[in-house]
Amino acid sequence: xxxxxxxxxxxxxxxxxxxxxxxxxxxxxxxxxxxxxxxxxxxxxxxxxxxxxxxxxxxxxxxxxxxxxxxxxxxxxxxxxxxxxxxxxxxxxxxxxxxxxxxxxxxxxxxxxxxxxxxxxxxxxxxxxxxxxxxxxxxxxxxxxxxxxxxxxxxxxxxxxxxxxxxxxxxxxxxxxxxxxxxxxxxxxxxxxxxxxxxxxxxxxxxxxxxxxxxxxxxxxxxxxxxxxxxxxxxxxxxxxxxxxxxxxxxxxxxxxxxxxxxxxxxxxxxxxxxxxxxxxxxxxxxxxxxxxxxxxxxxxxxxxxxxxxxxxxxxxxxxxxxxxxxxxxxxxxxxxxxxxxxxxxxxxxxxxxxxxxxxxxxx
Length: 364
Ligand code: ATP
Ligand code: MG
Fold this sequence. Notes:
Strand order of the largest sheet: 2-1-3-12-11-4-5-10-8-9
Number of helices: 12
Low-confidence stretches: none
Cofactor: Mg(2+); Mn(2+)
Keywords: Amino-acid biosynthesis, Branched-chain amino acid biosynthesis, Cytoplasm, Leucine biosynthesis, Magnesium, Manganese, Metal-binding, NAD, Oxidoreductase
Shape: globular
Helix content: 25-40%
Bound molecules: adenosine-5'-triphosphate, magnesium ion
Distance between the termini: 22 Å
Pfam families: Iso_dh
Number of strands: 12
Largest sheet: 10 strands, mixed
Mean pLDDT: 95
Radius of gyration: 21 Å
Subunit structure: Homodimer.
Catalytic activity: (2R,3S)-3-isopropylmalate + NAD(+) = 4-methyl-2-oxopentanoate + CO2 + NADH
């Protein structure tokens, strides 16, 4: 508890700085009331970094990100930067962070808060109490495999991508998922298409081997990803942790997101290998983007960013109780009816501002 946690905050563009200001209040509360010490530094990423330095992520900020226990990012991008050259686009700043920190495990929780169960794309009865975690492999697979490109073959062109996974790439994301399952309900479902893909056959074999040798206590099941998609919208509560590859994870985590309602509620974490102090390289960020349509108006929902900080408490700082308490505070203010504009149902009501929502959560 006397340990100090180093945190680099990168608010970014659009609503990023607005939602991050609310996280700052939460951090201050934990410092004042729980004796935690955060060594917080702040930097630029995305369009604002381009405006200041002509690059979406400076080498100095990159080096800082490598050195801290956790990076918390708001959002990057906006219409102002749409016509920039590809090499300096705001999103390149985020991609550089992910790549250089080698963040191979992307964690996307889908949790249904009871007060918002009617926002789900499914019936309340199907999603009430939903709490699943999708772990997506983030640095390999078909998005990166070679050969890739558009080639000429005879008298026509052919577009080629290659799904490629090495045993070690599969094993490391599997280990990350088993570790998480162990701390949750102890169940892991691995999804691939071993029926039609060689990489899927290897995926299944390696995940099973890691299970048998290192995590026999975790209950492991395998599912074809197409069936997984079906099960996710039929009976999502059957899952605890799901581990899958880059492409399937991209699709399945977006589908799972819609089980919970608003984009303004969804946190994420991207984890890499453990550093010398045992803490993994880690980047936390809300799933939503910079929302230029509402930026600067005090309308943004800060909960996705606040819940991303809760994930940092849990996965980087080992403060599971603090993370639980923060999530409980969010649940409480929602149950009391506090709503930002994105959470207004058809019944209407008066939305509260970004800052009022942050204050309510801190008070709770
Ligand atoms: P990106 O390309 O960065 O993912 P995007 O345009 O796909 O961006 P967002 O920027 O996330 O998506 O915005 C999508 C919609 O959701 C917008 O109408 C935006 O206002 C809304 N939205 C996103 N985040 C929030 C939030 N935290 N609170 C309220 N509304 C939000
Ligand atoms: Mg988007």
